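Let's study a protein:

___
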Amino acid sequence: MSPNGAITRIVIADDHPVVTLGIRALVKPLGDVEVVGEASSGGELLHVLAGAPCELLITDFSMPYEDGSGDGLPLLRRLRRDHPRLPIIVLTMLHNPALTRGMLAVGVNGLVSKVAMMKELLLAIGAVMNGRTYICEAMREHVADWTLPRAAGEAAQPVAGDPAVLSQREAEVVRLFAQGMSVTQIAEHLHRSVKTVSQQKNDAMRKLGVTSNTQLFEYARAYGLI
């Protein structure tokens, strides 16, 4: 898989042992790859990467919080900050346009749905190790009308799916809603009308590209809003 024919060292991170075993089984026939580390949480992954040099990380998007490291987009930001050149492929069960765009904006190189792992993970590895970005078939619709600004030397700009595109009041409503409050309860808490809060919630969902309350909750959790 390495463009120069060298052994590609891989680290795998997933809190489900069956998934980890599945990834190992998929890459084993390649011959020119070696799994040099495994992790089952964000904190463990950071520790493994600190001691195991590798050329590729394959990681779950949602892992446990018990060690305080967090997961989702905050973890991906940390990984990209600490390992700016490390190719990263993310596996996920989430089908959420805002999160797909958020992961790409953070700098992820490959996105693969766990449902399609058997079919597409090797394709993703091949593409990413040759310098290309890979988005699995199920997620391509999420970015069909969207491009990530990557102009050299320019400051990063807010993109669809980033909390920066929301107004302060919209972000406040999203955070409280994701914490379990109803629109009526949020209105009482913020001293706004129910109509106003409902409109702010709908405006936030439209800006983020999410279409259900479940997707909105996933988004808030992944961005560390709750």
In short: The CA atoms of residues 99 and 214 lie 12 Å apart. The chain has two domains: 8-143, 166-222. Residues 166-222 form a domain with the Arc Repressor Mutant, subunit A fold (CATH 1.10.10.10). The two ends are 39 Å apart (CA to CA).
